[in-house]
Amino acid sequence: GAGVSQSPSNKVTEKGKDVELRCDPISGHTALYWYRQSLGQGLEFLIYFQGNSAPDKSGLPSDRFSAERTGGSVSTLTIQRTQQEDSAVYLCASSLARGRRAEAFFGQGTRLTVV
Amino acid sequence: AQSVTQLDSQVPVFEEAPVELRCNYSSSVSVYLFWYVQYPNQGLQLLLKYLSGSTLVESINGFEAEFNKSQTSFHLRKPSVHISDTAEYFCAVSALGYSTLTFGKGTMLLVSP
Fold it and tell me: Whole-angstrom Cα distance, residue B23 to residue B73?
C-alpha cells in the first residue's frame, strides 16, 4: 500500500490476555518504529528496527512487551498478560534510513483497550 | 538523551487570529527538529522539519517554525488560523545520525468561529 498499515484498528481485550498488533511499513523502508500514545502523555518510544541490525528495545516498558520484524518488513508487537495501564494507541512508523532523510511516516494506530 | 517540552497542553484561539505553539528541547548533541500534526481520528503527519540551513522553515498550509539554538526553541506559528487547523500538534527531536524521535506531550489547538 501507499502508507503504513496497522491492524487491527481497535482491540478490546480482557486483563491477563495476550495481544498481537501488526504493522506493515511502506515498501522499501528499512527503519520501523513502535510508539505508544497515552492520553496526556504524548508519544512514548517503544522499539526501533533498522535493517538487519539488532533492534533498539530501550523503550519497552516491561518484559511483557516484545516485538519482532520478519524479513525486514512486517512487524508484530506482542503484549503478554495485558494490564489496564497498557490501554493506549499503539503507533507504528517507518522511514527510509538514518539521518537527515529519516522522515518517519506513521500509521493510523491500533487503539488497545484492556478491560 | 533528548527531551522536548511543550508548555501548553491546550491553546484556544478564534478563527483568523495568530497563534504560537511553544516547543523547547534539551540535547547534548546537535539535533533535527520536527512538528507533527494529528487531526481528529487520524494518524500523525509531518508538518515541517528543520535539518540544517535556514532557521526559518515553512509548511504548505501557512505554518512556520524558527529554530533558535541559543534558546533551544522551535516554536510553531501561523499568522491567521482556520477552523480546519484544529488538531493536536507534536514537537519532536532526533539526534543527528540517529532516527528515533523524542516527542513532546502535544498541544491541542482549538480554533473556534
Answer: 6
